[in-house]
Amino acid sequence: MSTPQNPAAAPALGHSLKHLAVHLITPLLMCLGMALAYQSAFHQPEPHHLKVAVVGTSPQAHGLAQAIQDKAGDALDVRTVDDRAAAEHQLRDRDLIGAFVPDARSPELLVAKGNSDTSVVAATAVFTTVTDKQGVPLHVTDLTTPAKGDPTGQGLFFLLVALSIGSYASVAVIGAAGAALGMKVRALVGVVVSLVVSVIGIVTAGPVFHVVDHDRAAVWALGWLYSAGIVLIGIGLHSFLKKWTTLTMMVLFVMLNFTSSGGIYRPELQNGFFGGLHGFWTGAGFQEGARSILYFDGGAGLGGHVLTLLVWLLLGGVALVAAARYEGRGRRSVETPAEAEEEMEEAVGV
């Protein structure tokens, strides 16, 4: 006896598979984007115009600097500085990665690990080669004092990660669950959410893990400014992009942001693309601004990094104004409950 066939089964299966395939596009694009971004930015760190110096005014000092430059080519940018005080000044201004003080018995390399531990490792390797030829050990002196909970200085990068994820994941929730709210209300909610995100960040990085062991108010303020920029940009974009907002936010504030922040490798160890983004991307503004506060007494270009964060906050304001006008013309489409739930799950589940 044959089993009766259900003529609706095949079309229903086909529809379900098509529905599934459409929803798989976003995570697969995320996978591709993350693979391309992270591997492109981090897979082969090599020095590019790494700024180092030889201390001294003698012909021997100038000759050593020129010999190192000739051998390294574009990998290094070698100069001479008159004395130790000048070298320390340029290191504290973050104009140098390392300054070599020649000595027949006890050569020394001055560094500022708070600027970038990985860049210091690269500079140390350069001058270790020099001292190995002399047959003497290289003494490395760090002019900065690492935080108790962050001996490598990379803990700030993980604070950046926490602030970023808390910010961009909140955007989909505000846009979807708060769809019935007006733009002004959503913007206000966004500002409050960014405040909460920044407080969570500084509490965990400060008294909990001691990554930030002083000037916590200043680092918290940078974190709030950074988070608010992301959230407001996202709320504005959501009016136009809907379910594609999460993917767009990941591209802007994860794929391009983490890789160009300088938290793992600064521009002198990256290719030109990510090194170029470092000059104006928001994550770099927070990362380098926090470094300036914690390790360089609020100098070393802090004003420029704050300006970067303010520009991104301004972009958030522009996005909100554009979205409000777009919705005011009756072009706002309301997501179904199922679409809103799917979007929130994508955002918080990444």
Question: What does it look like?
Answer:
- The chain has 350 residues and is an alpha/beta fold.
- Helices cover 64% and strands 7% of the residues.
- It has 13 helices and five strands.
- It has helices at 9-42, 59-72, 84-92, 117-134, 155-177, 183-208, 216-241, 245-255, 257-260, 272-277, 282-295, 302-328, 337-349, and strands at residues 50-55, 76-81, 98-101, 108-111, 139-142.
- A five-stranded mixed sheet has the order 2-1-3-4-5, sandwiched between helices.
- A hairpin with a 6-residue loop joins strand 3 and strand 4 (108-111).
- Helix 5 (155-177) runs antiparallel to helix 6, helix 5 runs parallel beside helix 7 (216-241) and helix 7 (216-241) runs antiparallel to helix 11.
- The chain is elongated, with a radius of gyration of 25 Å.
- The two termini are 50 Å apart.
- The model has no long low-confidence stretch (mean pLDDT 87).
Q: Strand fraction band?
A: 5-15%
- Give the count of helical stretches: 13
Query: Can you give the mean pLDDT?
Result: 87
Strand order of the largest sheet: 2-1-3-4-5
Helix content percent band: 55-70%
List the helices and strands and how they pair.
Elements (H helix, E strand, L loop, with lengths): L8 H34 L7 E6 L3 H14 L3 E6 L2 H9 L5 E4 L6 E4 L5 H18 L4 E4 L12 H23 L5 H26 L7 H26 L3 H11 L1 H4 L11 H6 L4 H14 L6 H27 L8 H13 L1
Parallel strand pairs: 1-2, 1-3, 4-5
Antiparallel strand pairs: 3-4
Helix pairs in contact: 1-8, 5-6, 5-7, 5-8, 5-13, 6-7, 7-8, 7-11, 7-12, 11-12
